[in-house]
Amino acid sequence: MSNELNNIISHTTDGVFEGVAIGGDRFPGSTFMEHVLRYQDTPGVKMIVVLGEIGGTEEYNICQGIADGRITKPVVCWCIGTCATMFSSEVQFGHAGACANQASETAVAKNQALREAGAFVPNITEIRSILFKGRIIVPAQEVPPPTVPMDYSWARELGLIRKPASFMTSICDERGQELIYAGMPITEVFKEEMGLGGVLGLLWFQRRLPRYACHFIEMCLMVTADHGPAVSGAHNTIVCARAGKDLVSSLTSGLLTIGDRFGGALDAAAKQFSKAFDSGLLPMEFVNKMKKDGVLIMGIGHRVKSINNPDMRVQILKDFVKQHFPSTQLLDYALEVEKITTSKKPNLILNVDGFIGVAFVDLLRTCGGFTRDEADEFVEIGTLNGIFVLGRSIGFIGHYLDQKRLKQGLYRHPWDDISYVLPEHMSM
Q: What is the Cα–Cα distance from 7 to 343, expressed in whole angstroms?
């Protein structure tokens, strides 16, 4: 603005004697009046031009100077920001953020006061009319300004719009002063001594489960934590660890082996037994149907354990469930199936995956915390396999740490444990 003002005056007068840009600093180094009085006392200055702005009261000092007779030279003055009255809300002008804090600080009020004090305050409308009449300025056709969208932050603050969420969550909220698990502050979790089973109930099921249910979950994690280094998941973890990989990579290698053939039979067993039981099939009818369809019964069978060499993990869980669960209809049904399968082959027992699967269905259906549809949904979305994944991760991490602690080198499978079966026509 200072550059343009000096440019205009230079082209319309015999030149600018001196120009000073004060700016809108909070603590200015000088004021309007200091320079105006200096120009008043400078013989070379014939006219004083002042460009003020909205906000502040410096221009009123010039009015007082004219009234007191301290300023006798012609003063041309204009305060910019007259358009502020057109806005319904407070508007700041320029990078310095000029704004009127009261009516006397508006540009219109200060221009009026300067005009009444005797300063030459341009009448923009009158000057524009004269320029148009003299064809000095040819008015251009007004082009409607484009509609400027409302600022997003402003619109959101006014409640006109809302930001769509990237995703939803219903299990945890960390935004407040205290971490909240499914609506329960973390301090309450510890005060109530909910344990790992209780926390899992909050984060997985959004429920505060009965004490026996929490204890059963913890027992499941304990009995599934590990089953030796020979099973595929532990074997993969060990091989990966001995190849120099980090903990997460080694753990992931083991977890990726979990499926219907290893550890992932909990969901499948729960679904198969539930479907058979709910449809009214007798245990023998269920076994015969699966045999006829050529489908393995998930959760039945073990490579080592048998009816004569029972799995103590299953026995421990069975004793607890029978003592504490309100009802064990599906478990009883599965045990009847076991009697039929073990009569054919002693190792076709209800294994730990199958037991946890059917017992968990009984838990969800009878603990009082879920509707039947909710219980079935948790089985459908893979919740039960999560129990095995969480539990077995404990063992996989143990195997990783064990290999690192023992400083075991790179694993290479021995030749004598591999059966090389090559096509005869390719042999030399």
A: 108
- pTM for the predicted model, two decimal places: 0.64
Q: How far apart are CA 76 and CA 121, in angstroms?
A: 6
pLDDT higher than threshold 80 for residue 23: no
Residues with catalytic function: 95
Q: How far apart (Å, rounded) are the C-alpha atoms in residues 354 and 350?
A: 6
Helix 265-278, helix 283-293: angle, nearest 10 = 120
Mean pLDDT in residue range 200-226: 96
Cβ atoms within 10 A of the Cβ of 389, count? 18
pLDDT in tens, 373-403: 999 999 999 899 999 999 999 999 999 999 9
Residue type, 326: P
What's the token pair of residue 311? 């799995």
Query: Rounded mean pLDDT of the chain?
Result: 90
User: Is residue 263 a contact partner of residue 392, using CB atoms and an 8 Å limit?
Assistant: yes
**63 and 110 Cβ atoms separated by less than 8 Å:** no
396 within 8 A of 249, measured Cβ to Cβ: no
Q: Tell me, what's the pLDDT at 92?
A: 63
Please give the distance of CA 135 from its chain centroid, rounded to a whole number. 63
Q: Is 364 left (phi over 0), alpha (psi -120 to 50) or beta?
A: alpha
CA neighbor of 184 nearest in space, from 218, 209, 208, 211: 208
Q: What is the dihedral of CA 415, 416, 419, 420, to 10 degrees?
A: 40
Q: Give tens-digit pLDDT for 75-92.
A: 999 998 888 777 766 666
Per-position b or e across 116-134, b if 16+ CB within 10 A of its CB: ebebebeeeeeeeeeeeee
Whether pLDDT at 146 is above 90: no
pLDDT at 137 over 80: no
Pairwise CA distance, residues 114 & 64, whole Å: 9
d(CA 427, CA 234): 36
